Amino acid sequence: MKIKKLKLDGPCLIEPKIFYDNRGFLYETWNHYKFLEKKLKISIAQITNAYSKKNVLRGLHFQYPNLQGKLISVLNGRIFDVVVDIRKGSPTFGKWFSVILNSKKKRLLWIPEGFAHGYLVLSKSADVSYCCTCKYYPKNQNEIIWNDPFINIKWPIKKPAISKKDANGIELNKIKNLPKWKK
User: Fold this and answer.
1) Contact 89, 180 (CB under 8 A)
2) How many domains are there within the chain?
3) DSSP secondary structure string, 30-77?
4) Residue 48 and residue 135: Cα distance in Å, rounded?
5) Sign of the torsion angle spanned by Cα atoms 18, 74, 77, 159
6) Are 180 and 113 in contact (CB under 8 A)?
7) Active-site position among 51, 117, 130, 136
8) Pick from 7-16, 49-58, 118-127, 140-149: least confident
9) For residue 39, what pLDDT is reported?
10) Is 49 domain-assigned?
11) Residue 174 exposed, middle or buried by CB count within 10 Å (0-12, 13-18, 19+)
12) What is the rounded CA–CA span in Å between residue 85 and residue 11?
């Protein structure tokens, strides 16, 4: 298992070791002890799977209070995955990065608490798995508008298919209750 640090402090890309043979393949998406060896203290409380069609954009979501870290993997398909630092006082507040996740490479994305998350489906469809560190609290769910000019994400398309709830998301700078950055 390889761990690659990314543009923002905290999130990382996990490349599992894949074992291929004439029957197919096998790889670990979760190994508590290997993650601890790599200094990733992740405790999974809930696993959620989502199926979406091409050009569907989900996000940008975060839960506050009751912050959630997320370990993201794509079981089938390809997505443009985006992470945004929403920790007040962070030197990278409002900064974002993207990574392409797909079922061929089988990489996982670790998003710690204090970051918003969203993705756009690039393939005909995609099955995405979220391993979350805290259960889902509907009343704590927050949406940042996907095209927030302050964040200025360079999405690969201009008119994604989004839910009514995501269409009503608000700009990051207008959200009062955000997690605080801890040095």
Assistant:
1) yes
2) 1
3) --HHHHHHTT------EEEEEEEETTBEEEEEEESSS---EEEEEEES
4) 10
5) negative
6) no
7) 130
8) 7-16
9) 83
10) yes
11) exposed
12) 10
H runs (alpha helix) in the chain: 32-37, 164-167
The pair phi, psi for residue 17, each rounded to 5°, is -80, 125
Residue 149 lies in a domain: yes
Is 130 considered catalytic here?
Answer: yes
pLDDT in tens, 127-159: 999 999 999 999 999 999 999 999 999 999 999
Q: Six-digit token pair at 11?
A: 């999130």
Residue 183 lies in a domain: no
Catalytic residue among 61, 64, 117, 119, which?
A: 61
Q: Which domain holds residue 143?
A: 44-174
Active site residue 32: no
Please answer whether residues 8 and 85 qualify as being in contact, where contact means their C-beta atoms are separated by less than 8 angstroms. yes
CATH number at residue 59: 2.60.120.10
